[in-house]
Amino acid sequence: MEKVKQCFLDLKLNRKICAIYFVVLASFLCFFAGYYNFKVMENSTQKIKQYSRQMADVSKNSMEGTLTNLNNISKMLIANTSVQTFLKSAQNQNMAWSKDIMTQIISYMDIYSVVRSITIYDKYENQYGILNSRNDKKSGEDIFRQLWFQEVREAKGKARIKSNLYYYEDYPEENVISLIRIINDLDTQKPIGVLVMDVLESQFMGYTSGSGIESDIEILVLDDQNQVVISNAEIEKVPDEILDNQSEDIMTLTKKIEDEKFVFSSCYLEDYQWRVVSMSSLKKIEDENRQANSSLFIMALLTSAIFVMASMIISRSITSPINKLIISINRVKRGELTKVNMHTGRDEIGILKESYNEMLTEIEKLIQKVVVTEQESRKYELNAVYEQIKPHFLYNTLDTIGYLILAEENEKAYTAIENLGSYYRASLSHGSQMVTVQEEIKIVTDYLDIQKLRYGEVFVYCTDIDGEIAHKNILKLILQPLAENALYHGIRPMGMEGHIIIRAKMEEGCICLSVEDDGMGMDPEKIESILNRREKENHFGLRGTIERIRIFYGKRDCCRIESSKNSGTKISFYLPVEANR
After folding, report:
1. Global pTM?
2. Total H helices, total E strands in the chain
3. Domains (ranges, CATH) in the chain?
4. What is the mean pLDDT of residues 385-390?
5. Among 105, 203, 282, 493, fewest CB within 10 Å belongs to which?
């Protein structure tokens, strides 16, 4: 990395300008392309999710409407006096339908014409059926020998729905949905028969198969065994999260199936344990994004070429007069204070030339003044820095920021600079000794965020602040030394990840500020030596902080240290509330 940095520094100014132009442009284009793709994909996905939810909800409402109508017709049928009388008098052999029963059942079918057929079984399992059309021919299975029929019995007259009990010869491609319910004697409530009503798939969903559904949205209907009953989808795989959902609320998720992303929306019909699933592929959006990326790439190449040409023109207009100034400066090295003579305008280069010529006549005196002024300024700045900050922390942080910049981790470097600026702004606090609890917590968290950039995964931290004391005033810079002590003396020597907990709460009538770690800990002798000022080690300002609090608040018993070897350390400061000002 140092070699790359040095190579860049050694470049001519015009090449540096071109390189910087190119890097800035490339970074902008990459960011723009990434952001564009993200927003387009996000917005398109949200629209598809919304439409998918609407389609699932519409399909569910259609199914519920059909089931409600079937349920109502079936209730009227099983309560019909003629049907009840016929089934009560049924014998162990087939009896002929009476004209009255046929007329009434046909009238119910006329009321709700989507019913393909109505079949009634008596208690001897004799079958009586009426088809919607004379051309209809159906075949099916013996429902009484099916395992699921026990569920119908246990439902005690409530409706259940099953698929493909029967097949219609005129509709070989369509599934058949059947509503089944036990017919009970209205007087004794004992079973006297079974009612089966059939509806074709297209009429059950409220649309004609192959039309009325957008090509991008595919609908699947799953029965109570999670088997696909109705589908217009090429892929009939449903994610487990959908199958496990038992809520009637619409559930939406994005899942990859066979290397293709789909948006799934699911509605659950709790009464019948069936579910409707709408699925839409994101392949079309991804293809459009790839086409857009190709266009962006071509535009990027053209824009880069224009930028490079512009940077060369700009750099040449700057470097040409600067080269003449360099020649004159080289003469100054040999003791020739010769003024620069070249034609310039009143731009920055021209002003620089005039200023340079004026400067040559008094250069020796100005150099001496600059040296003296710089020395005094540096001395004053250093004194101010030593009064407010610890230089080793600043240097290490700047080294870390420099490394992040060279590693092109610009976002982390920017965050570190922000945290560093925030830390010193808060710690200086316009020269005031007091800050709020919330500001003090901000100082220490900024410090720890910077340290995390330096030490990686050595530690993690969290804060716990009582909102009642967040705006109470306290002496500033009392938590940061505790955090330093926890990091450098507690966690780092351990050689493994540690935890730091910062708390601020009311306790024993005081504001209690504490820093706790799970690091190396201390033995009782060391704790006593710190509290009684016999400890010679620095402990990153811990002892000095205790003294500051004792002097400021006039309170000897202001610090408690709870610790034992290899069991962590908790240091707490107890600050009187009435002393805040």
Report:
1. 0.46
2. 16, 19
3. 79-205 (3.30.450.20), 427-576 (3.30.565.10)
4. 43
5. 493
